[in-house]
Amino acid sequence: RGAHGLWCAGLDRAWPCSSAVPVEALQNQALRLCLGSTAVGAQYGAISALSINNDCSRLLCGFAKGQITMWDLASGKLLRSITDAHPPGTAILHIKFTDDPTLAICNDSGGSVFELSFKRVMGVRTCESRCLFSGSKGEVCCIEPLHAKVDLRDHPLTQYSLLAMASLTKILVIGLKPSLKVWMTFPYGRMDPSSVPLLAWHFVAVQNSVNPMLAFCRGDVVYFLLVKRDDSGAIHVTKQRQLHLHYDLINFTWINSRTAVLLDSVEKLHVIDRQTQEELETIEISEVQLVYNSSHFKSLATGGNVSEALALVGEKACYQSISSCGGQIFYLGTKSVHVMTLRSWRERVDHLLKQERLTDALALAWSFYEGKAKAVVGLTGDTSKRKAVIADRMVEILLHYTDRTLKKCPDQGKIQVMEQHFQDVVPVIVDYCLLLQRLDLLFNQIYDKMSENSVAKGIFLECLEPYILSDKLMGITAQVMKDLLLHFQDKNRLENLEACIVHMDITSLDIQQVVLLCWENRLYDAMIYVYNSGMNDFISPMEKLFKVIAPPLSAGKSLTGTECVLKCLSPPFRSCCLAGRAYPLGDIPEDLVPLVKNQVFEFLIRLHSAEGSVDEEVYPYVRTLLHFDTREFLNVLALTFEDFKNDKQAVEYQQRIVDILLKVMVENSDFTPSQVGCLFTFLARQLAKPNNTLFVNRTLFDQVLEFLCSPDDDSRHSERQQVLLELLQAGGIVQFEESRLIQMAEKAEFYQICEFMYERQLRYDKIIGCYLRDPLRKEEVFNYIHNILSMPGYSAEEKQLVWQKALDHIAELLVLSPGKAAELAAIHFNEQIESIISNLQDQFLLFQFLRSLLDPREGINQDLLHLPPCITEQFIELLCQYSPGQVLETLKVLEYCRLEETIQITQKHQLHEASSYLLEKKGDIHGAFLVMLERLQSKLLMLTQDDESSAEPSLLENIEDTLMKTIDLCQRNSHSLDQQQREALWFPLLEAMMSPQKSSASSQCSYSESLKSLTMQVLNNMAAFIALPSILQRILQDPVYGKGKLGEIQGLILGMLDTFNYEQTLLETTTSLLNHDLHWSLCNLRASVTRGLTPKQDYCCICLQQYKRRQETADEIIVFSCGHLYHSLCLLSKECGVVTKGLMRWMCYKCSSSNKGGKLSENYSELKKGTAASLAQTSSESVLDPQQIQAFDQLCRLNRGTSRLALLTELARGDKHGPLSVSHGDPATSSVFQNENFQLHLTPPPLAEE
């Protein structure tokens, strides 16, 4: 390295990492060769490129001044000195041997590529040069020939001597043999001009074939191209998955077919898995002080005669400082050479072990075992061989892990600390032993070590439980099983022990010990499992269970404690046994299934138990099961009957069981109706089967019917009805006479039974009566009637009968629910509504019906009704009687009513507000006003005549409410009246309010202030419609005030004058402020949008090319107010343009990208369009565009205080919501007055002279 020659030395530094191995300094580093001399260095300049051929016998050196030399590495002799292989005055950037030792490729700083052919003729070494690519067509800055390993030299693509070249604009793949041919051209598109083009070949296995893959990248995207040859000899290049990065690359190196090492522009190494694109590791190598090739790319040794684009790429070029060989990557630093290589799988595991990260080491080793690890080095052979090697290493780690765990266990302290220590470790050891299927290791070596510590032994045994329950661990040695039973028994974890036993291999259990343990601790599941699986005995556990369960059942006691557990377990046990399955898990051997079934049936139908007493009832087992759970037992029998083959023995078994069931249940009165009903439902289902062979006396069904429908027994009415209904639905209907069944059901008030029978007979009208008489289902009658009348599937005659039945019972339906009855009438009885109304005698019921029918708020569509007006008036009449407070609101929503008749009704019932509303609606404004005025005067009269102070507050509130409604009436209509008509409304109202205040006696009353306040409200409201002089003149013309007694109204007059002055001043001030603010804002806005823009740079911020050098004539220049400049096509490629209303709106790419962490601004920057020679500004819209809105907002922010226009806008908005309204929630709607920085810049008002 340097100007004086080439040093070939050892390595003196490296760095550690988890997936890379540090290479120690070579112990015997010695200088082997020193090639060249100071004279050569002075003549040729520095070495700029190197290449060694495949057999390491020749070395090619390229120099900064353009010369090329070839050296013999065995003798150190200079073989060739080439000075005419390329144009003079350009530096050698790359020189590469191909797989053919007589052929090499070089690339100079002029961007040209040359083929060098070495020959020896008559003992004279020569070199012939051929130009493959001229720099005038695009400067090449990177070349990479395809090299094949020795085992791939016969690959069909090696005969083409493929060469990849990367210029500043495109990638080319050419073949040098047998003749020069271009096989692929791939253009970059727009890229960062300072990014470095990179190329790298490697053979990879894809779809069961090995082919070369070319990785090329520039910037932050890596492209993978797979090269194949077809049968015709043509070469095809296909794109593979791209790799998108978040950093710019300056080097790409394959380390094997799946792993690549990337170096970014900030000198960080990234180890990447190609298939998953996962980043395995990141390493900082800034300490290497990497050597860059910038001086050679700038050709400083020959005067710097290179293009600006190539010099810009050379700023980050480090092609000659990084080399790979045999899975190692060498990095040339300013003071040393560093090597990076992937650690072997064993070294990676050992590295974690040195850090005492045993769990991570086991996880990594298991990933090697499963074949899921990435960047694997050092594993060869077939899969089974690799797994055996890894498994041996994992066994060593597990034993070491066990020893270390026991050694590091705290000797003193709380037992919880010791337990936690082993709970963190032991499950990991057990898990990996099971994954490796090394139970011998787990239960011999490891368990023996764990047994030395009692705490570790207990944790070990407890860790086995989840694996046993999930059936991952079936067989356990006898000693471990014995210890497991004793441990769980000592810990009183009997339920856990039982769950483990039923999942264990029976051969690993001590049957006598387990049975004794289960019986003593009532572990019946485990006991059954041991009997069934261990001894094929299915009867003994049932006998033991019946001994436990029979006494409390026969005594009528409820099952508690352990008996409740039995209650849950017995039905599944019986089901498994009768169906030929083992309990609780597994299956009975096929050859034992018939025998087990027969044994169980013979056991169940025994006449007496083995140890039964003298007074024991017959069939004790069947009786106990029926008492225990009748429905479940009969379901099990039904399933069992399904499995029976239709032979003579099976038929006899079924008939015998049925006879026993009838004898036990029918002849005893200690069974409930539900239990008896379950039995006959079961029988009905069996009898209804097409291949039925059972016989049951029909009189028994009649007895059951009498039993369930007995009128003397009123208890369990719903239960008896439900049982009979299930019996009928199961097919038992064929066992009864239908007429007698209906008669008994009606007598017993079984209305659901009646409905079932009537529906079978298609007598749907009868079902309506069933609903009406059933207190639990009355409300469902409306849906039933509606469904029958509206749904298809019923004949016209059936619908007519239902319609007539519903009409006959309409009164009952109205009593049940007036609203639903009205809805039913509107849909199905529209033409009969008048007759229904005329037939109703109950006036309140009629009122409820009409309100549900006519009030739109009740939800009935009024377009369905076609009623005469008299019906509506009848409803209003009833409404005035029963709910006068709702008359006004109802009149407002009624769509059809005659005004004259309705007014007479409301006046008849003295509903003044309703009458006023109707008169106003009619157009008689004065009449409506007089009604309200009369009501107001009557209340004022009551106030002046009422001497009781207790009545004043409520009366005053009533007066205020009436006054407000009267004022609203006047305000609503004053806009459409002339001046005289307005005075006819407002002056009588004012007179009515002032008359109580004229008497001297009332002036001292407690309500005088309230009346004055109300009078001021009248004056303030009428001032908007009546001229102020007219109001004053009318007041002064009053006989009382005309005599000079103005003291009582002085306050009223002064208040009116103050209001007038305030409003006049406010109007003038508001007009002035609006004019000033509007003029100031428009001036500043105009100055802002017409100001010229100065770009910060003369190149595009995306492609980094000068805007003058654009390639497309349609490309425009976009300049933003922030100073950034772009090509329009570049902005479109980054999706920074949006079409709105036919115009293109642009957004600055850099400004919007810098705001990705926060909220992106919604205001687009205004752009200025132009050509390369002109940046003329254009504007054709009269409305404010986004740039103008942004400028206006900026001007508002620069203003010292809140805009006066904003204050007035806020005040105007506040008038709509009240003077003290406060906005919460959305900041966009909050008031400017709530801002803590809000200040008013006002001068104090002048002092008033007294």
Automatic annotation (TrEMBL):
Keywords: Metal-binding, WD repeat, Zinc, Zinc-finger. One of its GO terms (biological process) is protein targeting to vacuole. WD repeats lie at residues 40-81. PROSITE patterns: WD_REPEATS_2. Residues 1100-1151 form the RING-type domain. GO terms for cellular component: CORVET complex; early endosome; HOPS complex; late endosome. One of its GO terms (molecular function) is zinc ion binding. InterPro entries: Quino_amine_DH_bsu, Vps41/Vps8, Vps8_central_dom, WD40/YVTN_repeat-like_dom_sf, WD40_repeat_dom_sf, WD40_rpt, Znf_RING, Znf_RING_Vps8. Pfam families: Beta-prop_VPS8 (PF23410), TPR_Vps8 (PF12816), zf_RING_Vps8 (PF23412). PANTHER family: VACUOLAR PROTEIN SORTING VPS41 (PTHR12616), VACUOLAR PROTEIN SORTING-ASSOCIATED PROTEIN 8 HOMOLOG (PTHR12616:SF8). Belongs to the VPS8 family. This is VPS8 subunit of CORVET complex. It comes from Ficedula albicollis (Collared flycatcher).
